[in-house]
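Let us work through a complete example step by step.
Step 1: write down the sequence.
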Amino acid sequence: MANYYSDHPEIAFHLDHPLMKRIVELKEKGYEDAKTYADAPVDYEDAIENYKRILDITGDVAANIIEPNSESVDLEGPHLENGRMIYASKTFENLDATRKAGLHGISMPRRYGGLNLPNAVFSMLSEVISAADAGFQNIWSLQSCIDTLYEFGSEEQRQKFIPRVCAGEGMSMDLTEPDAGSDLQRVMLKATYDEKEDCWRLNGVKRFITNGDSDIHLVLARSEEGTKDGRGLSMFIYDKRDGGVNVRHIEHKLGIHGSPTCELTYKNAKAYLCGDRKLGLIKYVMALMNGARLGIAAQSVGVEQEAYNEGLAYAKERAQFGQKIIEFPAVYDMLARMKAKLDAGRSLLYQTARYVDVYKALEDIQRDRKLTPEERQELKKFTRLADAFTPLAKGMNSEYANQNAYDAISIHGGSGFIMEYKSQRLFRDARIFSIYEGTTQLQVVAAIRYITNGTLLTIIKEMAEAAVAPELQGLKARIDKLIPVYEEALNNVKALDNQEAHDFLARRLYDMTAELVMSLLILDDATRAPELFTKSANVYVRMTEEDVLGKSAYIKNFTVEDLPSFRAAEKTEEAEA
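Step 2: predict the structure and record it as tokens.
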């Protein structure tokens, strides 16, 4: 029987990373829960075995329930009845299966009914479910919104809402509006305090809300009258049981059909302030978005894997000109690149998730006691690493998912364009990954300060000091030669001393940075598990070499005077109009 976890040993490999021991130690707080909860681990080995059991259960549910339902869900989709969103019928089966398997409340402490799993494991579960159906992963993974309520809500709010999510209730984050997409400072949903009822009331419209008719919503709204920027926004909790919010419209989308994207109307809806006033965008949404971006990186890796699986299977079966098409260089080159992107992207995902785990666990410990000076330094270090890596993980993996899905169709030829083949659905589903929760362009904006201030260059140089297996020395030497080329390109951009030129060239620096990071990660993976990653390391390092040298040549020959030529077509069109 298929299993989306055990069928891919590359996932389990990342549980054996050296940093996992520290993560488990911090997350389990000295294994104190073992005294109270029968399912709590007693030591590190017990914790890892527990993670593997949960992953195996998830892999079984994904392969034998969620994936077989995916075509039906894609065709039916959700629908609207009397202001309420109704899931596709098979989505209810998926939710029932994940609830019965205990796959909710993943990251929450056991005292609230949660599983207390690290982010790295949650990302693995997300990948596995996404490979089966990326649309359902959207619904299931939004339980991670509860992390923000746990971090910033009151203990009364935690006691009220977290056990419900652990029992399987759904969540959504209601951020965007018709006039506020990427620019959330423009949010105008109005929040007014109701002194008589001692609560807040929300009025307005939210648009493009994933799982918008969920049980519990985190809502960004304008609490400070007369303000027009992010300083007037606060975060609120809306409970569907209180009423006041209706679904006005469900979007008819290109892909992820099972995931309802809703337009909501708030009419005097009762809500509760989460955290402090005025910090909704400045602090709480940033926490929400970083978690969501890591979730989309995991979602992307799942689709990268499934697209590769589909392309590989078809190439092995399809014969042309008297031989299987997998024997054609053009096809096996495509497949090799798909696998290399998958393995390198997955490595970046889990490295980022581990960085997040360390600093989040230390922040949680800090709620109970004062951190030691060493722990404070550790918190600072891993917060910086997580902040630098998260936009790389989201941006690169969302782009790789699109590329792998595109290539899967190419391998299928004309059949890939036929709706009966899964590759077309993967292609449609993947397109949103590089758009929602911040486009790739916004990931570049988030990462660029860590690039131009030298933070990521320093990290790359530190990573390059790690030893690799003797048989990988040749590949390592290639990367060592690329680092000064990259540094020169970075200095050339800074020397232009022109913000428009910096913005224009930022994507090239971003791509080069991420590819060097992933090359070093995949070399480390191949050193520790050559049977799994040596081929991908060989392919990915050569891809990086090809790209870094090309982009560095472009930057080296670029001047500020070149900018008008890129605006010429636009200005000509304006003149003609």
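Step 3: interpret the result. The two ends are 62 Å apart (CA to CA).
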